[in-house]
Amino acid sequence: MRILLVEDDRDLARFLKKDLEKAGYAVDVSHDGVEGEYLGNEGVYELAILDLGLPQRNGITILQNWRSQKNHLPVLILTARDAWYEKVDGFKAGADDYLAKPFHTEELLARINALLHRFHQLPGGHNLQVGGLTLDQEHQQVITENGEHIDLTGVEFKLLRYFLLHRGQVISKSTLNEQLYDFDSDKDSNVIEVYVNHLRRKLGKERFETRRGQGYVFKEELP
Amino acid sequence: MKSLQLRLALALFISLICAVSLLWWQTKLSIRQLAEDNVAEHLEHDAEAILAAVYADSPSTIALTDTDIEPVYTKLHSGQYYWIANGKQIIKSPSLGEDHLAVPMVASGSRQRVYLTGPQQQPLLIMAFGYRKDGRPVTVAIAEDLSPTFILIDEFQQRFSMIAAVLLLVLVLVQIAILRKSFHSLSRLQTQIGALERGERSQIDTDVPLEVSALVGEFNRLLTVLDQRLQRSRNALADLAHALKTPLTVLQQLPREDAFRQYPELGEMLTSQTANMQRLMDRVLKRARLAGSGPTAAKFDMHREIPALIQVLKNMYRKKNLTIRFTAPTSGLLSIDREDMLELAGNLLDNACKWAKSTINITLEYNQSIHLIIEDDGPGVEDAAIETLMQRGTRLDESVSGHGLGLSIAKLIVEQYGGQLVLSRSKDLGGFCAEAVLYTADVGQGK
After folding, report:
1. B402-409 long-range Cβ contacts below 8 angstroms, 24+ apart
2. How far is Cα A122 from Cα B163, in angstroms, rounded to an integer?
């Protein structure tokens, strides 16, 4: 799950990146508006966290540009500007959620979660529930229909969350690669195969169908 | 406060009256003087003719040759009389009849003008001349009835008075027109200041008379300065908020660091202090950002802004799936600062959303003042608690989450507009009801 963080304060960006990574997201950080807007159009992000007061290009302008280019990337505005008219202007520009600084990381994570669930037409709530599986984000566990708790490694957790959100869709290895690692990491698509096999072992082979030459499909309902 | 125009008009009117009256009076005097002088000259000619007809008929007496005397002197009470005195001897014109004229003796070579009432109450002008005839001092007095002259003078005066009155009227009208025209630019200034108060303009036209152009210029400059200062301080505050809040967020993240976990009491201290800082900052910044009533150039379009705000709150409280109903008059332009109005409505609505079970009603009305009523179907507040709620927020460190902070900001905004915030129980929905009353220079202008 790759997230774009556009925030000009380097300290805050570092903290947030660390917290978000701890929560299982791959995070790319941009410190200025022009770069941030460009990255947001790349199509690899599942969500953007956008500061409003940015050097070079204002956050509202970035958002308006994205929306006018039919870029429907879920955007959470994170700003110190918390007057109501600013919230109204933010939502008018096309924001999906608005969080005022200062905030607690837990709040931000909960909002990101809610926003992703909403975007993928899943019910709200803290934990992701798809096809009888419940993903416990806090303990990085998956709970099966039988109530069995299965521990997941960091990569397995990230991978499974992406599969759950994109249930029924064909997902290529390169997409999974993009979603697992930020642009500073080394990528090796063969590793993906290994992790998918780990998940198959834990959750059953039939959950993850291989489409030759295309990728994988997560089956919400088992035959 | 006296009207300058009225004062000028009054002063001009009085001076006009004085000038015309003086002219009228002077003309009246002059005309009479001229007429009398004319009569007197004519009398002198007559006196000389009569003197020529006087001759000494004895050493001590004189006589008059009747032949050269004009017939008017023989007709009784004709209004033309002569009176010749030679010592004790008097020769008077037959027109005098039995009447006498009390004419004094005049030394020879001199003359005297005498006014007397003659026969039949005729106002007489008498010219008495002193002559020496055959070595004897003779006084010849010629009298003429002035009443025909007076009638002419009266006629003239009537005509003249009428012309003067018409002239006065015309002048007064001309002056009123001049005053109106000169004061027109001032009254335009007045309407523009009204428009300024209603927020329809941001500056006053500089196309004004020289006398007030400096004032208008300075006024415009002050308006610009005020506007810039508000904008600057708002921007500065927004920048300050931005600049402070990001580091504050960083500070709040610190206790989560491993190094801090070893000293939990330090972490707690940091957390509580940063939370405190945040609360103080929020309140101070919000208060400082309020524009308050005054010349606002921007209008608040309630049918565009309030639904947008409702959408924001529905987004924020998506989980509760609230029904938010908005009722307002069809014409919806309010002359109130947009940021203030959204801040007020946002805080009250946020509060309502926090407590509502399913429904919130927003009502906006305006007549003399703006009424913003927000009701919810939540638990509401007991009457006793309303008292404490109203008192809360008078001090900086007293803001409490829940009903408190939002309401105290709403109260601040309402106070900026000289209004009040009334809290009660909703009659329709049974929950909390907050009614904000605001006063602005000119409330709304819909049409």
Report:
1. B402/B354, B403/B351, B403/B355, B403/B432, B405/B279, B405/B282, B405/B283, B406/B347, B406/B348, B406/B350, B406/B351, B407/B347, B407/B348, B407/B351, B407/B434, B408/B283, B409/B283, B409/B286, B409/B287, B409/B343, B409/B347
2. 99
Q: Mean per-residue pLDDT for B2-11?
A: 85
For residues B57 and B86, the answer to whether their CB atoms sit within 8 Å is no
Q: What is the pLDDT of residue B297?
A: 54
Helix, strand, coil distribution of chain B in percent, nearest 5: 55, 20, 25
The interface predicted TM-score (ipTM) is 0.73
Q: Does domain B299-447 have CATH number 3.30.565.10?
A: yes
Kindly state the tokens that stand for B183.
Answer: 């004061």
Give the distance from residue B344's alpha carbon to the nearest chain A alpha carbon, in angstroms: 8
Beta-bridge mates of residue A141: A136, A151
Over residues A55-84, mean pLDDT: 89
The dihedral over CA atoms of A123, A129, A130, A133, expressed in degrees to the nearest 10, equals: -170
Q: What is the DSSP letter of B78?
A: -
Q: Are the Cβ atoms of B274 and A124 closer than 8 angstroms?
A: no
Residue A147: Cβ-neighbour burial (10 angstroms; 0-12, 13-18, 19+)? exposed
C-alpha span between B124 and B96 (Å, rounded)? 12
Only one residue has tokens 């990574």, namely: A21
Q: What is the pTM of this model?
A: 0.61
Q: Kindly report, residue by residue over B232-263, the tens digit of the pLDDT.
A: 777 777 677 767 887 888 888 888 777 888 88
Q: Which amino acid appears at position B82 of this protein?
A: Y
Q: Give the Cα separation of A69 and A72 in Å (integer).
A: 9
Q: d(Cα A78, Cα A19) in Å, to the nearest integer?
A: 15
Distance in angstroms (rounded) separating the CA atoms of residues B370 and B414: 10
Q: Which stretch, A154-163, B11-20, B189-198, has highest mean pLDDT?
A: B11-20
Over 70: is that where the pLDDT of A1 sits?
yes
pLDDT at A53 (0 to 100): 81
Return the H-helix or E-strand segment holding A48.
strand A47-50
Q: How many CB pairs under 8 A join A and B?
A: 85
Residue of A154, A138, A150 lying closest to A204 (CA atoms): A150
Task: For residue B304, list chain A residues with Cβ-Cβ distance below 8 A.
Answer: none
Which of chain B's residues have a Cβ under 8 Å away from the Cβ of A101? 245-246, 248-249
Q: What is the 3-state secondary structure (H, E, C) of B159-181?
A: HHHHHHHHHHHHHHHHHHHHHHH
B413 and B292 Cβ atoms separated by less than 8 Å: no
Q: Which amino acid is at A207?
A: R
Rounded to an integer, what distance in angstroms lies between the CA atom of residue B250 and that of residue A13?
A: 9
What class does CATH assign to B4-150? alpha beta
Q: Hey, are the CB atoms on B311 and A91 less than 8 Å from each other? A: yes
Which residue on chain B is closest to A9 by alpha carbon?
B246
For residues B99-107, give the mean pLDDT: 83
Cβ pair B399, B381 in contact under 8 A? no
User: Which helix (DSSP H) or strand (DSSP E) does residue B329 occupy?
Assistant: none
Shortest distance between the Cα of A84 and any Cα of chain B, in A, equals 5
| Block residue for tokens 């879920």 | A74
Strand partners of residue B83: B92, B141
Using H for helix, E for strand and C for coil, what is the string for B90-136?
EEECHHHCCCCCCCCCCCCCCEEEEEEECHHHCEEEEEEEEEEECCE
pLDDT at position B394: 43
